[in-house]
Amino acid sequence: MATRLRLETRGYGGEAAIPPLSRLAERLRERPGIDADLTTFRLLESLRPQLTAGIDIVAAGGAFYADRWREAIGGTRHGVLREAPFPEPDALVMDTRALAAEVRAPFAAMPAPSGLGLVDRHFGDPAEAGAAIRDVYGSLMRAMRDAGAAGHVLIVSSPADEELEDLASPFTFFYCPDPDPEAIAVLLEHQSPLALPGKRVAELAVLIDEYGVRTVYLVDPTNEEVAAALEVLDPDHLRIGGFCPGDCDAYWQRLAAF
Question: For 76-105, what is each residue's pLDDT tens digit?
Fold first, then answer.
């Protein structure tokens, strides 16, 4: 009997509901003395179903983690940049230590800088303000890695060259949920592998020919989509990705079964 192929799985984050009081109490009993707040517990809740399912590379967080990052950028008040930004990493470091107590070298997922919706009232120049905020992002991500994070997933709807030039690295992956051709070109100029929705597997052969794509994370695929990808891609270069929109226990269990 042929051995069943098992594909590596990776989480890119997702959405996590605010845990009920009973769950918070349970968490506190599990880890007495934990340094955490409601956002930290929400991160832990986004991580838990990935660990339970056996996802190979996990990422806690998602779009909901944006508020923490806005707070970590000093010089902003109520989403408005009032002075030159500076890093305030303490809460992010607290989050990282709580995550690292659950799993070795976790990833954290959050919006890219352009997704925070910050309004500049200091520089008066979008390019200068953007560069300053990206510099702070880099400092904050380094602080989290120093505290035990493996790296970061930056969620972006429209990838921009300047963001990838400044922040893409072996420790940082830009995740675009449904990239158009222009977005794919920008992403592949700065990083690999490619994360592609499973529903778009028919495009895979063209992308391999055009960009020389070697490794692909097929996101939220069906069995049929995985089979179609294996017709054009070596099994060693096909992996499974996920971004949980809700009902995360069932979602990650299904992906882990590939």
Answer: 999 999 999 999 999 999 999 999 999 999
